[in-house]
Description:
By secondary structure, the chain is of the alpha+beta class.
Amino acid sequence: MAVDAVGTTTSTAKTTTNNSADSASASASLDYESFLKLLIAQMQNQDPTDPMDASEQISQLATFSQVEQTIQTNSNLETLITGNALTNASNYIGKTITSADEKTTGVIESVRVYSDTMVATTTDGDEIPITVGVRVGEPPAADPDPDTDTDTETSDT
């Protein structure tokens, strides 16, 4: 009976103090509460003449704690990657983009960020996924005097 009360108290404490990790640990196949239930069942059903070694129990708890920390680290890393993708997307606006097949070119007006890619929308309304092979660069400099043609040479002869 005392073991059940400890399991309930631990579950309640986890719920109230660790809300930020709940979303990350939800994707794990074994959460803290399930681990405690499994450990309690293992203790209740062990052979009384050959009980589990205390160091083995501590090792199991330490391993589970490491798994929880890894899940939280992964969640934090995903947040950082998303923030980095948004920063990169804002840096593309105003630049010239050419699709990988070189059929579509334009100046980037906006960028949508998805979990696995970014899609640039040009000022002409074309959408170009930002993937391998896409070229992004500075827009061509505007010709200061459109009446002069720099490509043709004139001679005064």
